[in-house]
Amino acid sequence: MTGPVGTLREAPARFAGGLTEIAPQTYAWLQPNGDWSESNCGLVVGGDAAVLIDTAWDLRLTRRILAAVADEVGVPIRTVVATHADGDHVNGLQLLPDAEFVCAEAARDELAGENPGALRWSQTGVHLLRRFAIGPPRRFGAYLDWMLSPFEFRGIEVRGPDRTFAGRLQLTVGDRELHLHHLGPAHTAGDTIVHVPDAATVFAGDLLFTGVTPNGWTGPVAGWQAALHAIAALEPEVIVPGHGPVSDLGAVAELDRYWSWLTEHASRLLADGVSVDDAAEAIVRSDAFAAEPWGRWDCPERTVCNIVLIDRARRGVPTHITHRERPLIMWKVARLAARLRAGATPA
User: Fold this and answer.
1) Which of 52, 163, 275, 323 is 20 to 30 A from 181 (CA-CA)?
2) Domain-by-domain residue ranges, the chain?
3) pLDDT per residue over 186-202, tens digit each?
């Protein structure tokens, strides 16, 4: 049997982790607290087969999920669906070689750019920065070392899909139907939800973060909000986010409002010539931010990523943050995290 599932770092768990039945023969694997790469998965059982929705960021954590499924459900996984191509949702796919792997065409294209081997080198590099560098490089190393340290990237191989789709796809497992909707680009280009009508459930992937600040790698924000509206139109009773506890349509509406609020406040500062970095810090330190629900969400430093998307859309340039650009963005994220922890006043 699998043991208790806590957070991957030292924070106390804000919600129960592990495999839980959220509707008849419909399960969520929850990884508290939904911080960086503390990602959720789903399982839908029909007859003598099951569909797994997403995996974890490394093989060890994925094996734990598969062990829980075997112990508590005991039905073989015949199909695995990826909600998008970020490593924390796909890096365990190789452990299911006999299951058909399905994803959106855009996610397939993004998978081609994934490089788990580079993460191993990054772990070594940021650990050295944390130990031996000084000033901003040490701050950057400390943040990424904290972010990457719970994971083991050795032996991970990128697996391509067996089947792809554009728009929508219906899967059948036993006597049950799963409806896949490609709603990206938003968090990534390949963002896909899995709607299980007979359970009134949606597995939203990273289109929904609950209790955790979202981070956008692709955008635009308008696309993300359109995706949230599409989820709401399905009228699910239960929604499993990519990160955070199981939620409902209230969380969808809250995130939609967050994006409108952030766009309004960030656009005003950017129009006045404030930099992305300073706008992010000014916003998360403001009384207006603290008064909103997102003022209590984890990872406020991710606001930097989101204002990058808003700034690029405002300037009429592509919003997508490339893999080459991500280290620079994470440098800015690490800077804001350090300043917030230190309680420093804005520069």
Assistant:
1) 323
2) 116-148, 259-342
3) 999 999 999 999 999 99
